[in-house]
Write a structure and sequence with these properties.
two-stranded parallel ribbon; about 75% helix; mainly alpha
């Protein structure tokens, strides 16, 4: 991820550096490059040569439009505004899952850094940038033309050598070509398309960071459930040791039995301590992801429940199409495949096999094309399989939760019966406590199943809505 982050930010920086280049431009009418000016003297009145960039009236392909997609300007929308959910800040030292996304966008330094790059790219005015480049082309052409016109006299006067003249001319020519390439990239919409891809890739990276934060939150919730279970087991073991100590005094059990029970308690207590350390570590990690003060003592709110209507609304085929449209990885593989196919077709495509079998450039293009094709097909198949597995996992956790709730209901009935028996004196207080432990254990299993279901569903929604699998 670090390599991808660096590459993305470098891409954004390179695109934005064009603004700094354009700032050097000066005003003036567009002049032809000196190479054409040498052949044909400019006409009186400062006309432009054929093929030069036009100053006005161009609408680059791919440029962002200020026109609305639907409706007419000034018309009020008939659809009412969507209700805005009220934001309730979390108390100090705590966080809820519903606020995590917002807090990471506001406090995560990586997300904020990437957002600055996105904002800078989105704020580029391509019309202004193209005009600045056009003016810069004019100045370069004029400078080159002045060099050509004055070079003869300067060489004769000994103020410039022939080598210095050609070196200066070539530098101006290279600079003109570089700026012209940028100008044409805007005119043809290539720069706009490239920057749009960069923005999409940067937003995909932001989503991956947010998703990692949510995964950490869910993992912490599971660890807290595990901690509750270990504490319950420790309390039950303490009761057992107390009973064993009494039975040992009565001579009903050996000292070895008591020692084994106490050894088990020490191991359980050690595991509980290790789990507490891990909770502190990962809570600190979550605080870092939110940009909060790192204490390791963060209090988590309960995970939201997955609504039954949301589960019933899952449609694997429709969701798969949506996920494919939103996936950056699939888009990137598609573009790579298209580029390789275009290059292969330029070399003759499949028809070239009959008369270009020994052409090295053709064979390389052919191998590149089929490699990209197989990579694309594999990416699509893996993506489809991954989403299918996520879908099945959600459905499986749904039935596990239903089973766990049924088991909890049974244990609650058993506990009610145990209470009655204990009141009648037919079972001991410890037996009643053991029945209560079974209820607590069943309740923990329900909580774990709810956590697993939410985790799987949340991952599925990320895959569908943002095209991110993990």
């Amino acid at each position: 991820m670090k390599q991808r982050t660096t590459a993305l930010l470098l891409t954004a920086a390179l695109a934005l550096s064009l603004l700094g280049t354009a700032a050097l431009a000066a005003e003036g009418d567009l002049a032809p490059p000196a190479s054409s000016a040498v052949q044909t003297e400019p006409a009186e009145g400062g006309g432009t040569s054929a093929g030069e960039p036009e100053a006005q009236g161009e609408n680059p392909q791919g440029a962002e439009s200020t026109e609305p997609v639907e409706g007419n300007p000034g018309e009020d929308s008939e659809e009412p505004d969507a209700p805005v959910e009220e934001y309730i800040p979390d108390p100090v030292g705590s966080v809820t899952f519903g606020n995590l996304n917002r807090r990471m966008h506001e406090g995560n330094l990586q997300v904020l850094s990437i957002q600055e790059s996105i904002d800078m790219l989105e704020e580029i005015d391509y019309d202004d940038l193209k005009e600045d480049l056009r003016l810069q082309l004019n100045e370069l052409a004029k400078t080159q033309w002045s060099l050509v016109m004055s070079s003869g006299a300067m060489i004769e006067a000994g103020l410039m050598s022939d080598y210095e003249y050609h070196s200066a001319y070539d530098q101006l020519d290279s600079a003109y070509d570089a700026v012209r390439k940028q100008f044409d990239a805007i005119k043809d919409g290539d720069m706009q398309a490239d920057n749009a891809d960069t923005i999409r890739q940067l937003k995909n990276l932001q989503n991956q960071i947010i998703m990692a934060g949510e995964a950490t939150y869910i993992a912490l919730a599971a660890m807290e459930i595990q901690e509750d279970g270990l504490e319950r087991q420790l309390a039950a073991l303490d009761r057992q040791i107390t009973e064993l100590d009494l039975r040992y005094e009565l001579g009903h059990v050996s000292s070895m039995t008591v020692k084994q029970a106490k050894s088990g308690r020490a191991a359980l207590n050690s595991g509980l301590s290790t789990l507490g350390m891990n909770l502190n570590t990962y809570k600190g990690q979550l605080e870092l992801l939110m940009g909060a003060e790192i204490t390791g003592e963060l209090s988590l709110g309960a995970l939201p429940a997955v609504a039954l209507e949301d589960l019933e609304a899952m449609d694997l085929e429709k969701d798969l199409e949506t996920a494919k449209e939103n996936s950056w990885d699939l888009y990137e593989a598609t573009e790579t495949y298209k580029d390789a196919r275009e290059k292969y077709n330029d070399h003759g495509g499949d028809y070239g096999q009959t008369y270009k079998a020994n052409d090295r450039s053709y064979t390389q293009a052919r191998h590149t094309y089929y490699s990209a094709k197989y990579t694309y097909d594999n990416t699509v198949q893996s993506f489809e399989l991954s989403l299918r597995n996520l879908y099945l996992k959600v459905k499986d956790y749904q039935q596990i939760l239903a089973t766990s709730r049924t088991a909890l209901a049974v244990e609650q009935d058993n506990y009610t019966a145990a209470q009655l028996k204990q009141s009648q004196g037919t079972i001991s207080q410890n037996a009643l406590l053991e029945a209560g432990d079974k209820v607590a254990e069943a309740r923990e299993k329900v909580a774990k199943a709810e956590n697993d279901l939410f985790s799987a569903y949340n991952t599925y929604r990320w895959a569908v809505d943002c095209g991110i699998m993990n």
